[in-house]
# Entry
Amino acid sequence: MSATAPRAQLVRDATFAHLGADGTISGTRGTSPDGFFVRDGRHLSRWHLTVDGTAPAVLTPLTATEDGAGECVLTPRGTRDAPPAYTVFRHQAVTAGAFTDVLTLVSNSPDPLVADVAVTVDADFADTFELRADDRHYAKPGAVRSARRTDAGVEFDYRRDDWHSRTAVTAEPAPGTVDGEDGGPRRLGWRLSLPAHGRAEVRLRVTAHPHGGAPAAALRTDPDARQLDGPGGELGLACAQGLADLDLLTVPATGVAGTPVAVPAAGVPWFLTLFGRDSLLTSYFMLPHRPALAAGTLSALAATQGTRYDTFRGEQPGRIVHETRRGELAHFGQIPYGRYYGSVDATPLFLVLLHAHYETTADPALAAQLERHARAAVDWMRGDGGLGEHGYLVYTPDPNGLVNQNWKDSAGAVCHKDGTQASGPIAVCEAQGYAYDALRRTARLADEVWHDPSYARELDHLADALRERFARDFWMAADDFPALALDGAGRQVDALASDAGHLLWSGVLDEDRARRVGRRLLAPDFFSGWAIRTLAAGQRPYHPLSYHRGSAWPHDNAVIALGLARYGLAGEVRRVATGLLDAAARHGHRLPEVLGGYARTDAAGPVPYPHSCSPQAWAAATPWALRTALETVGG
# Structure
């Protein structure tokens, strides 16, 4: 099966499998690698079924049926005059650290028969960062991979210095044969007797033993989460699908004082882990409906908040983590992402969500518990974050990590109209809005929860000054629109970008300018008919299939919709919501991470972005944010 053939994805409890239409794993790499993955490692790189010596034909492709499970129907090769003697009903599923594959052979024959069944299996233990399309290679000195037969199957073993991972494959009944040579795959074989119109079954289980231990089943943030009341129509269907996806993407994490919590992972295949920005915005979108998700996210991020200086990882005291990883390459420091802090916006968004949780729940307990962490986050914004020295939150491109450290973190995303990348220290516009909102909200916490009115006044003063500076330095009079950023020399980065819509959500713009920006974002060069593009069409760097320079992101539109609703732009809210829900309806009511930026008139449906993650957390939560925005403006 080629890397571009249809694939199915099963995900549950920080574990996922990416499989072919027949349930096969072939060890692909690139934009869509297949395999069975746990803790950033591929614990199965080959899983290939043959029946009577050949790969079976697919009658119905592998389709997800329930939480972390899928089914397909296969047969041996046959013809019209000699139809297959039996049918294989295949049920596959993932749970925390495990993958199961149940093969049920049902005879179509009036006579007894024997079926030869074999599964070829291998585990390469590749780190997910090795599998990406950029074809990176990492040295692994002293690494040893081996396999041995067991009573019930085979076990694969991988060691490198103090790193040790295993994959155990067991079967019931035990395979009659296990063939293969050292360093290669193993072939497990069975000869199964099928009575006339009878059946036989092989049950296989793959258990991952990653370094550091297998993940626990994620705590559910709400035992009745699936029972949340949603609206009807297309919005209701998209909300229901989004909620189901979020349940699958919920992973266990450790909060303050070692408390186990549940958090939304960013998405699969690349980001099944705690992500500062993604987890925060997802939790914010869901806050009116699932506040426990926000509480878990805040606690987990407080527990990983920076405490020292580490240039390689971008850690600084008070800074909120961008992402966490537990794979081999992170363990050996070959990538900085074990705990990577290269984000300019996770820290203010942490403060925004902390206050929003208090405001929504009317429960001050969490805000009181995390007071020390919140004050440290404010200190980071005022110090290392750049507010004190530069007047704005800034970042400098990281040669070992991310060139851009806002949500548009791909190379070249923060650009001028001529397409040139801004040079740092860079102050992106939306991060200033987040900082303004964070200061305002933390002032309310200081006054109402921490009972520190002098600190509240100090933060309000900082917010007032930031808003005044922003209006002076970022507004481009000729375009009647905010600059995307200021570069290291204080020059406006003048590309017209969707980031301006986030300024409505944060409230940093005055009402007149906010309304003008909101209406401008619905002009044809921005709004494709499906969603608002990341970059307005007609500019030199615009490309409808660029990750951040012309594509359209549902979560970006959700933030904008909440901002439009804040200023009462009801018609604009409805247009954004209608476009996104129409797009969702053409994707089985599941919004992908990102859409191509082509206009609605260019094709019958939204053009997919070729490397989109799906399911993806903040896209899954987007319908719920749209619901909030629509309710704010009266539906």
Notes: The longest strand covers residues 199-209. DSSP finds 15 helices and 25 strands in the chain.
